[in-house]
Write the structure tokens for this entry.
Amino acid sequence: MFQDHITVKNRHKRFIKTICETEIVYGLESKEGFATSSSVHYEYDDREEIGIICFWAEKALAKSCIKDGWKEYEVSEIPIADFMENWCVGMGNDGLLIGTEFDKNMFGFEAEPFELILDLIAELKSKRKDLNFRKFNGLSDLEKQIKSLIK
């Protein structure tokens, strides 16, 4: 179990590095929306499951999950700026989690969206990259606003 946790955490770290380099995130989309799951680690106070929307850094890994309940889905490409300012912010506000790098056995990392944004900002800044957002004036503005939300 401990080895599995390390593997999942390492895949999550690789997800952050990869999407900051390629500036692309992949999801699985159908007519009903994007591929979802439920958290195995967290639940609401009333013991209701917390929803997860899953994302990948590589198209091939996303595609490998198109089976069983997700067999009607297709890989969808999302620019990182859109992912951060719309998906992550929206999911954080809605109380959802982000699943990263789930494998074909539905085993992956469960990230809190606002924490993921901060991790992505740190990685992008380390690469001396900035992004053009529609709702924020660059990474620093987004970072400042997210930090004010999680205090």
